[in-house]
Amino acid sequence: MIAQEFDSPRLLADIGGTYARFALEMSKGDFQHVASLRCEDYPNFYAAMRAYLDGLPALSIVHAAVAIANPVDGDMVSMTNYHWQFSIEEMRQKLGFDTLLIVNDFTALAMALPRLGANDVRQVGGGEARKQSVVGLLGPGSGLGVSGLIPAGDGWISLGSEGGHTSFAPRNEREIAILRYVWKDFEHVSFERLVSGPGLELIYRALAEHAGEAALDLQAPEITQRALECVDRHCEDALDVFCSLLGTAAANLAVTLGAMGGIYIGGGIVPRLGKYFETSSFRQRFEEKGRFSRYVAAIPTYVITAEHATFIGASSILDAQLRSLNQDPGSAILSQIRRIRPDLSPAELRVAEHVLAHARAVVNDPIAEIARAADVSQPTVIRFCRSLGCEGLSDFKLRLASGLTGTVPVTHIQVTNDDSALELGAKVLGNTASSILQVRSQLNRDMIERAIDLINHAKKLEFYAIGHYGVVAQDAQFKFLRLGIPSIAHTDSRLQSLSASVLNADDVVVISSSSGRLPELLEVAEKARERGAKVIAIAASHSPLIRKADVALIVDHVEDVTTHLPMVSRILHLLVIDMLAVGVAMRRHPQAHGAMPGEADERLDEARATPRKPAARNEAPGVSLASPFAKLTSHSR
Fold it and tell me: How do 460-464 and 487-490 pair as beta strands?
């Protein structure tokens, strides 16, 4: 079979919490320039990508696909097992790619399965796969990845799953002892907690304690090696339990999906166990399913041994997307442009042809560049946009970008002197909405919950901010006083320093700073912590203030205050304060659950028997005390 040739090499990457692996696919299945970089050697995703690209010979790369150990939902990606976070569209622009596809690593691995041959997998146990049947996939590494494939016509649909977080259930006394040990530190014990690299270490320590012996300070690779060499009884037992629990997890996945096409095991641990895994307790435990033992015994289980399986899957997804774009490129608005081409004037037709040929570039190009490239006037560009039912160029770009990426893009559209009042308003609102969506994708549920818990139990709550962000502190003081929490806002650095010097261990300080780099605020954060108070920081990621805080609430929207007043970023900080206020209100007044802010204020007033008119509020309209908070946090991990 002749290899499919590409117009240009395609960059593929597999990003985990420890290593970032890269390769160029020169033609279908031909992976060259394979490299593995340690994530800790690079401050961010862009630096690692740039380092790999800079080490390549002079090549034109326009398409890239990245598999990452993280859920991918929208434009912002924030890794759960590492500190990297980035905007997909921003990275595409900075790296100069036409296409940058980011997918979950196990989604990519699942899509590799149909392309694997007999030499790329090793069957463990019996069973025979049914053709065109559901396939299951799981694999322990730094966590427990879970996915699956559903046949659909001539192709497959991959499942985005967090099945590794299903609850662990012990099967015997030894596993009950392990569960009791883990319960000391974790209220909920998932399969991922045990069937992973860190989980193997937990199992080892639990078994040592159960035997009344002290555990050695061993990492997962050391435990595995000592077990395979049969030099440590507890390590041998730990690896045996690990394989048993993986068998149970695999069987659960098999009956959940009805995976008659087989269960595949990937990840970074099992493929390295070699022959040991084939004779381990994995398959026996897989088939121990009570009344369904015969059902699962007919399902084959395989270990993935292919060296570049994740690259193969990422390549498959990228190839499918590029073919789709070539056959029916992009969004509904591009299809609309093709339909109306016969009705366009010659000048408008030139704009249409330019957009169809350079859709992604048009999303970010200013009107002057679009007009120049199409050899038309700027009013012609506007007329073209309005001919498609758009209010103007900014509205057209939002619709175009949404169709190309599947999400509303997180980009900033520049306001110009040529904008009409309507276009100006649309741009301002669009920029604000995009920024809010970006912050929503950055939210970390655990951090928000910790902040709410600290505030809810604080004896005194102080808010510090300087300059334009003083209104954030003042607004916060007002909100939390109404919730019955002693609160004060300080916007003068001298008062902040004096107040921080008399804080106590039961007090909480919330510091709002866009850059997170102001020396005055860094100093009071240190003073507060020296006094034992807890510090909550609302600031840009990886800033000095974030590093000094007990709880970090990330808002990555830094505005240049030397050229204009910060507008969007202050709104974002106010919304974070609203989230905290809503969370505390729900904890303190569950009877107000589901009420709108104004209604909640009235109920709180009635509860305190202090009837008065509802005060004007600065909260975002439509934010309720219940479900909106859940919706805002449901996208974070």
Answer: parallel
Does the pTM surpass 0.85? The reply is no
Residue 108 labeled ligand binder: no
- From the list 558, 338, 574, the residue with the least C-alpha distance to 474 is 574
Burial class (CB in 10 A: 0-12, 13-18, 19+), 260: buried
14 marked as part of a ligand binding site: yes
* 190-218 residue pLDDT tens: 999 999 999 999 999 999 999 999 999 99
- Both 429 and 449 in one domain: the answer is no
Q: What is the CATH number of the domain that holds 63?
A: 3.30.420.40
* Mean pLDDT of the region 458-480: 94
State the pLDDT at residue 81.
74
Q: Which of 97, 115, 133 is the last residue of a domain?
A: 115
Known binder of ligand: residue 232? no
Q: 406 is in which domain, residue-wise?
A: 328-433
Cα gap 525→78, rounded to integer Å: 25
Contact call for residues 587 and 480 (beta carbons, < 8 A): no
State how many domains the chain has.
Answer: 4
Residue type present at position 591 = Q
17 assigned to a ligand binding site: yes
CA distance 543 to 122: 47
For residue 601, say whether it is annotated as part of any ligand binding site.
no
Final residue of a domain: which of 115, 138, 153? Answer: 115
